[in-house]
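Structure, all two chains, one model.
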Amino acid sequence: MSAAADRSPQAERRDEGLRFYQTGTFAVGGRLLAEHQRTVQSQPRRPSSLTKGHRACQGCGEALGARYALDAALRAAGGRLIAANATGCLEVFSSPYPESSWQLPWIHSLFANAPAVASGIAAALRAKGREDVRVVGQGGDGGTVDIGLACLSGMFERHDDVLYICYDNQAYMNTGVQRSAATPPGARTATTEPLGGHPGNDFGQGKSAPLIALAHEIPYVATATVAELHDLEAKVARAMEIRGPRYLHLLVPCPLGWGSEPSETILIARLAKESGLFPVFEAIDGAIHAVAKIRRQVPVREYLRRQRRYAHLFADGGREDVIDRLQAAADRNIVRFGLLEGSAPLAGDLLGAPAPGELDDLSGAQAP
Amino acid sequence: MSERPFAITLEVGSSRANHTGSWRSERPEYVRRMPPCNAACPAGEDIQGWLYEAEAGGGGYHSAWRALVAVNPLPAVMGHVCFHPCEEACNRLALDEAVGINAVERFLGEEAIRRGWEPPSPAQPSGRRVLVVGSGPAGLSAAWQLALRGHHVTLRERSKQPGGMMRYGIPAYRLPRRTLDAEIERITALGVQIECGQRVGSLAYALQEGAFDAAFLALGADVAHHIDIPGATAARVIDAVAFLHATAEGQAPVLGRRVVVYGGGDTALDAARTAARLGHGAGSLPAPQPLAGAPGAQEDPGGEAPPAPQEPVVVYRRTAERMPAHPQELAEAREEGISFRWLSTIAAARGERLVLERMRLDEQGMPQPTGELEELPADCVILALGEEPDLTPLQGLDGVIGEDGRVAVNEAMMTARPGLFAGGDLIAQERNVAVAVGHGRRAARSIDAYLRGFAMPGEEAPEPVAFADLNPWYFTDAPRQVAPKLARIRRQSTFEEVVLTLAEDSALYEARRCFSCGSCFSCDNCYGVCPDDAVLKPGPDGSPYAIDLDYCKGCGMCAAECPCGAIAMVPEQT
């Protein structure tokens, strides 16, 4: 498993012999890069599937993430792509009647049913013999992890040919920052404030949508952030090579709900990954295939202190105990997913998924 | 009115009708800021600028070289001898190691010589005549800049060949003469008339006789400070400048077997290292013997081999830390087996021995005598105690020599006499090639303005970009390519170059390590990270990017994620 885990997109680019120490490895583009090494976002004529004039807040991570992901999907689909959107920020700020920011066929129906609408579009396309047209379903963490989870699970188990993208900003931002099942412990929202005089979400609640998707043993599950564009685009491209249900969980910081500087959206996303709080991985057929290694590790404190939703952990003498628990959660991720250079995910720990070698032993036998 | 479906009252529109730029309180602006290397370069080079050209490799080297020689006509020379303060200022130091700027400069300079790249074309002739006195780096730099600006330049040199201290002071192992000759040849190819063996006895007369419109004085400083050593015979004492000059002319004096150099500057080390290289040639002398009973301050040179007995000894009154010589030259001297007597002065000579007095440093760091004496065997003493300019050509020019006996210049490098400018070692506190080249360029700009009747430009000193102004996430750690050094043993008996030129791929690698502090290098980050799709690529007028102010909400993400600090957030005027 360790050999496979090392094959991160970054490692592959290193192998290509890129030695642009000024830029090229991490920046969006670079004048010294060959055409095929440049990101979709660096193209002068990129699709900009979510175009200018939308009403997202300053520094919106979701608006950025949606353009990143859909532009990459559009390129992979040769421009033939339909999107079904759940209710949420992304839908509201992009489509106040009669305006639309979308540069691709796009439909919004209800909060809960985006995966089902996407399934229906895929079924219709199959019936029409239009398998050249691809389908994306998308929504925020509320529409995905809470309200639309049943539809999503059904889309997975029916093996519908849809890439579902969750833009995770960890609460219901559009309606005023209410807690969702993706809100992390310790974070304050409008609906966690009254809890026991300690503002901040409780530990031991919530759920991980990527691991739920992984448990469906669908062909492709990945997490990513808006801080690593090369990684994100590579994952979208890989997902689009596959037919069947695919799930991409994208961390998109929200300056409004997180209380961060609009200019620091990418920095915050980067710190979420570098601290270990948000593991960035890729799974194929139910098994972890690669993880993005931590490049410059930081304590969780560096991530937390830039966000007012955690300000209570630092005020009035601070809550070192809560910070310690969050650090412990990050440390657990680091071990569990093998996030440090030279380490590997714990085999069998994640839902008991077999390691690649073990799969060979099962050849001929039907997986349960 | 167009047909619309039932119950639809408005035409479908694009959000582009919604100009979100009105939300903005700050706007991003692309800026060019002073990189720290440029701020630190005494020659005034645009280092970031030419590294940017060189990063492309191939044809980029030629454009890099052209950017380089627009400021400095001696890049290959500087690549050999500059002590590169740019690298000490380099922001990359905070990540791994400084960019090897000096090595890339040398590569470009040598590449130009190898490929015979032509000098740039000069401007239309101005009809003005300028006299430059002294063909050291300051004089050559001024002559180059003046010729590029279309002025007729006459360069007078007292010695047989041009180059000043670059030829007669800097030893050949640090600067090969073919490199110097090639770069001077390029200056003459531009039309500069160099007259060697022409001592200017009286500047006042020369100016009048030649009908010059302006003059630049780069007389240098080569009159050695002298001290009398009681008991020493004149034959056994030589000054370092004369010793290096004679060696450069191929007439190295016989020094004897045990050479002592007195002083702590770069000249002292040049003299010691040159004497070490000559030592093997003094075959008529008896076989070396150990410095028996050398007491006290003898220091362990370190390294794998102990110093051979015939290696020169440098006597200096203070300590290694307080030595004015550049640390790199000290390190190379030590590698070559030069030994040092710190905290010592020469009190007297007694037969074949010198009497040294031990010193101690007082609270101000100044050496004070202790009265303790010791002896050091010596056949010869080379004095390297500093040099003074020879000001006799300036006699009869009122006010040019100040009350302190020095030539004073204003910010524009002009002396008290209008049209008479001065630079280089003649006026410099810090005497080296880079400072001299910078003086020459600044004086030439002033002379050009003076001749055309414009205001003379001052030197601006904007605040350089600090590491904190960058976003270092985007830069990968990468070790520096250190130019291979000649094996110590091979260096001892030859005048071959000690630091070799970087190979092409290493030079390219090195150039690409540049952070491009404060100047856009077209990485597409601003274009990519804007959540509002409000950065245009390409921008108008051939610029790489522009901000679409109709839609920019002023979030500042482009500025925060710019790797090199080339975007500033500026408050909107309301």
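Confidence is low (pLDDT under 50) at residues 280-309 of chain B.
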